[in-house]
Amino acid sequence: MLQLKEVKESIIAGSAIQTFDFFIQWHLTERCNLRCRHCYQARKRPPEMTAGDVMSEIDGAARMFEAWESEQDIRVAPSIHFTGGEPLLYRGFWDVVRHARLSGCRVAVMTNGCLVTDEDAGRFRDLGVFDIQVSLEGPPALHDSIRGEGSFRAALKGTERLARAANRVSANVTLSRLNAPFIDETVRIARDAGFSSIGFSRLVPCGSGGAMIESVLSPGEVRDAYGKALSLSGPDFAVVSGDPLAGTLRNDAPPADCGLTLSGCSAGFSGVTVASDGAVMPCRRIGISVGNLKRKSLRDIWATSRTLWRLRDRESYKGQCGRCSFWPSCRGCRAVAYAWSRARGRADLFADDPQCWHIGG
Ligand code: SF4
Ligand code: SF4
To answer: Whose CA is nearest to atom 2 of ligand 2?
Structure first.
């Protein structure tokens, strides 16, 4: 079995990283009140863990973080991002949020915003949830065409309630050919609606979103869309993207050509997904299970999964990605690479990111 020392040396880059920001994206339920066109779900209804089971797995994760700190001489800054489906539909939602906070984790929540009441808004604040992310697709008619009739109005109402209760609310936009032409307007809407910031990510053509493959942006369109969005960021309202490809726009000198992951795609590196049935995945949008909490601890899965180790190893990456000087801080979006190659009949988690504008240029 691989030792945690190797985990640190391979994924935490030795002394280069003093504080290890690690997140768990926890899908409490697959149930949802909306039916978004680009959803990565395939409308299946897997079983859900009980709130008691989730809390006991949170305790296990907290022990893993403590062990990393004491055995590896680093500081771990853990966070849990609860989502769904729609997480507010999960029975025991507030119990698990409270438990995660008491276990020492920062907590964020990703929601469609439509079900948030004034009482919920106060609870989020009182529990110290540091960020509530509400999905926004663009102007009202476009948002409704993607997420369902009336969803724009309901999401903004929920946002207003959250902001009024002094919560930090961020918008997240899933970029495709449908909404890329409306970036200016979308940022303006988010600012006026009381969001604290807005983030942009890419459509991954998997699950129901597989039917939207024709709406996936070309490499040049992705570069232009992120360039446009990030140019609108200002001191009073941040426009951000966690997409590794957006990170390459900063034009930082590429890091030394080392074999260690330093930043970029979090899959196998700085985050992990837990699905509603306990399945552990490198990223929800990749959708490949690397173990299940019902049979193995998160600590064991993180340290021993062959897929997670391959994600940390430059040698696994095919084509341009493996040879690229941005690899330590990028690696592309593995979910897009996987979904794209699968749609072409050759599923490959380590294929080149088809939306990378650095390839072939
Ligand atoms: S080739 Fe891969 S690692 Fe390099 S910039 Fe493109 S997606 Fe990132
Ligand atoms: S696979 Fe894509 S969506 Fe998932 S963590 Fe990596 S960059 Fe983000």
So the answer is: 333
Give every CB contact of residue 340 below 8 A, 6+ residues apart in sequence.
205, 213, 216, 351, 354
DSSP H helical ranges for 76-194: 93-102, 118-126, 140-147, 151-164, 183-192
Best residue for ligand 1 mutational test, from 323, 327, 333 (most atoms within 8 Å of Cβ):
327
Give the lowest-confidence range in 43-47, 48-52, 227-231: 43-47
Structure-model confidence comparison of residues 291 and 205, the more confident one: 291
Atom of ligand 1 nearest to the CA of 321: 2
Q: Which residue lies with its CA nearest to atom 2 of ligand 1?
A: 321
Residues 115-146 have pLDDT tens digits of 999 999 999 999 999 999 999 999 999 999 88
**Ligand closest to CA 255:** 1
Predicted local distance difference test score (pLDDT) of residue 9: 53
Dump pLDDT digits (tens) for 200-213. 999 988 776 677 78
Q: What is the mean pLDDT of the chain?
A: 89
Protein residue with least CA distance to atom 8, ligand 2 = 265
In the 8-state DSSP scheme, what is residue 325? T
Predicted local confidence at residue 260, as pLDDT: 76
Specify the DSSP class assigned to residue 253.
Answer: P
Q: Which of 261, 321, 352, 355 to mutate to test the pocket of ligand 1 (most atoms within 8 A of CB)?
A: 321
Residue tagged 């449908």 (tokens): 178
Across residues 299-314, what is the average pLDDT? 94
Task: Considering every ligand atom shown, identify the ligand nearest to the alpha carbon of residue 353 and give its number.
Answer: 1
Q: Nearest CA to 22 among 230, 334, 261, 285?
A: 261
Ligand 1: which residues within 6 Å by Cβ?
245, 248, 320-321, 324, 326-327, 330-332, 353, 356, 358-359
The pLDDT confidence band at residue 1, using thresholds 50, 70 and 90, is: very low
Report the Cα 66 to chain-centroid distance in Å: 24
Instruction: Report which ligand 2 atom has the smallest distance to the Cα of 244.
Output: 7
How many CB atoms neighbour CB 234 within 10 A? 10
pTM of the model: 0.91
E-strand ranges in 113-219 read 131-135, 169-175, 197-202
Cis status of the peptide bond prior to 85, with omega within 30 of 0: yes
The ligand placed nearest to the CA atom of residue 23 is 2
